[in-house]
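step 4 of 6: structure.
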Amino acid sequence: MSSTMHMHGGIGESIKRKEDARFIHGKGNYLDDMVLPGMLHMAILRSPHAHARIKSIDTAAASAKPGVIAVVTGELMAQHKLAWMPTLSGDTQAVLATDKVRFQGQEVAAVIAETKYQAEDARDLIVVDYDVLPAIISPDQAKADGATVIRDDKEGQKDNHIYHWESGDQATTQAAFKKAAKVVRLHTFYPRCHPAPLETCGCVADVSSVTGKAVIYMTSQAPHAIRTVFALVTGLPEQNIRIVSPDIGGGFGNKVPVYPGYVVATAASLLIGRPVKWVEDRSENLISTGFARDFHMTGDLALDENGKMLALRVHLDSDNGAFFADAQPSKFKAGLFHIVTGSYDIPTAHVTADGYYTNKAPGGVAYRCSFRVTEASYLIERLVTNAALEIGMDQAEFRMKNFIQPEQFPYHSATGWVYDSGDYPKAMNVALEKLGYDDLKKDVEKRRKQGEVTGIGIASFTEVVGAGHGADFDILGLRMFDSAELRVHPTGKAMLRMGTKSQGQGHETTFAQIVAEELGIPAADVAVEEGDTDTAPYGLGTYASRSTPVAGAATAMVSRKLREKARKIAAHLLEAAEEDLEWERGKFTVKGSPNKSKTIQEIAFAAYTNIPEGMEAGLEGVHYYDPPNMTYPFGTYAVVVDVDKGTGQVKVRRVVAVDDCGVRINPMIVEGQIHGGLTEGFGIAFMELITFDADGNCIGSNFMDYLLPTAWESPVFELGETVTPSPHHPLGAKGVGESPTVGSPAAYVNAVIDALSPYGVTNIDMPLTADKVWAALRGAGITE
Amino acid sequence: MIVKVKVNGAERSADVEPRVLLVDFLRSNLRLTGTHVGCDTSSCGACTVLLDGEPVKSCTMLAVQAEGQSITTVEGLAAGGAMSPIQAGFHEEHGLQCGFCTPGMMLVGTALLDRNPNPSVDEIRWAISGNICRCTGYMNIVKAIQYAAETKRAAATAPTAQPVAAGGGQ
């Protein structure tokens, strides 16, 4: 059916995707498509208030409705010690509220009924009496004297402060600032936004009252980690828990955490003895599940008289919501934010961060981002453009002057990272050439003279992805390795299983291509399966662009293991010494005898039918890969904008994106990822916003208020690439899914700030909606 | 109450509550789960089906409103084992990633090409602007619809295939 079915599908080939067929026929297997015999439906009652004490809950009318099997409250959950659960950041989170509600949309009670309509009808009959408390909606309010303590459930918690965290060297940084000829400051707020995958979160919990086996179908990006968390939370033995992630309709970080709905549905299935389905609606998704960002950042960049960077100082206040539920490696309280020195050779830096509870939804997840790298990249790239504008140096030239140079790799950054490889000037040059930068700058000057408001924005990001190494990166103690299990069948076809979970990234194709390259079995003959914890080897899941860097490496390594066994079998079949065999993709040949060879398919058959004496039968293996370091994808993005002086509307005229993600396995899929990420970055820069009124009501609770880019607004992208392989990854690959969302918001905003710079405007916080840009123009005296 | 509709060419009927949404009728009563729910507010288009050839959002329409009309869902796009040009276009041009928006996108694309066999890029972008995709950034969806348009145009101008006897010829 596919025009590329005949291709071998090795590394670098843009073969069409193996997973497409079921989706284009409407035969995908998403969570909500699942129906089990006897299945019940659950609806959750959520708090209308941001902060309130619960005085009473009356469930009588709801319980009496036809079709209702049970109404679950926090009190019932508490009887089973399940009213609270641990978060991925070592805090606690209410499953169903018992004492107070702490954000609008918090889970208060649940109805389990025969049909979805009955469950929702009955939910509306539950009566909760609230004593409303003042809402705290920002870190500034949270730290104010006399602020109400949100987490009065926690012993010893006397204020709303969660953590203080530092990185870098304060003393050397202070000293460097004293010597600086120029200090440029940027205070900016990266607002709260939401990954908003098109499919919301949900589960079907099926707990057998006879065997105790709990099968939970779940929209999870990390099924194995969830299984272990469930074992710890519920006390169920881990071998009796099976998490199955079916096809996932987009994740972008939203489907990493454990949500209360999963826990309640599982408890309900256990107590009732029937399967229970819970699928949230869009508003529930936007108001209660893992948000992203919400960082208030101040950066100071110290420069010498020639525009050379001397030091970077950053402080941020993090708004973590009502429970500290960020999904991130446990060592790092503000994620990997300390990558904030970015692509620049900055001798010293000091970063401080403070986290605060507020009456907002919990769960700072990495929205298409490697744990707060997006916020870091945004701050440094905005700061760099502002510094260039302030000292009157060209943005590109200022970056070139301060880039880490290719010969400095592996580069030890001021905050402790060891960058694996990079060639930042090269990526910049490719971008400038694609852009026609010199002519474009002249064109901008010309247009400005004619009264137009137009500008160019550049961002040269460096990402840090592919967690672990396991000694430094863990989630709840689980080391961030990943795994691949490869079984070659007697007929030479193969089954590959991994601990990751695709949500649209095309794993069934990309990972088959790694086997095709390393073991020579055509990609079409390699079935890839993920997401079922009963069958897949243990892994930490798919997020933070870690699948190719970690599970992709595991796939290469297990393929190589099998290739070594295949060599032994080939030697036996060809009656030759192992060292006399030459491998070319798909077969072993006796050196000097091109007619004497065995294909991998012949060898696979022999593995089950004709093996050397003493060898174990079969051609199967598993590899657990713990990366020696993170990978550091990078690139330069450039954006050209035109601003309408009358309305403040920004038109993105051009977007040039040059990515270096190391070796590309399937270039078509890589480019698709980049298109998608650049569009999400566009949405974040110009449209997407979760905000709150003074009472803590969430504004942005549906797709009419939380605006996502459609085909009409979305720009056209001009892509370019450079290839700097990762020296420590077996394939030289680095991971790419998140680079465009990490790098692009600053490029979009820098373009608008560059356009407004002749009028003295130095910052507008995202999203750059027309009204904000209009106000900035009016503030600068533009009245036309 | 009884609702009778034609779905993908077949007469279907069911006894449903008057308040049942068309999308729930399709997904739950008829088990046609290719039509998805993404937002409940007509914003995302994941639930798009064709009603007498016109795209509608089945999450904000009652099943009973479709009485007597003809519905096409994603399951009705392929003719036997053969993909429709729009399905082939989405596969060939990498017009899908997670696949959740894909049925709605393909149906809107189908309706567009029925009306306008040679749409411009702007016409395609406008036609699909009621459907949100979070993965692709739309560029390849535009290409997929262009691919389908080209395939359909080529088919329209190709010479009619001559019947051959069973077992005969290439």
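step 5 of 6: annotate
 - Chain B touches chain A through 57 residues (CB under 8 Å).
 - Strands of chain B lie at 2-7, 10-15, 48-51, 54-57, 70-72.
step 6 of 6: archive
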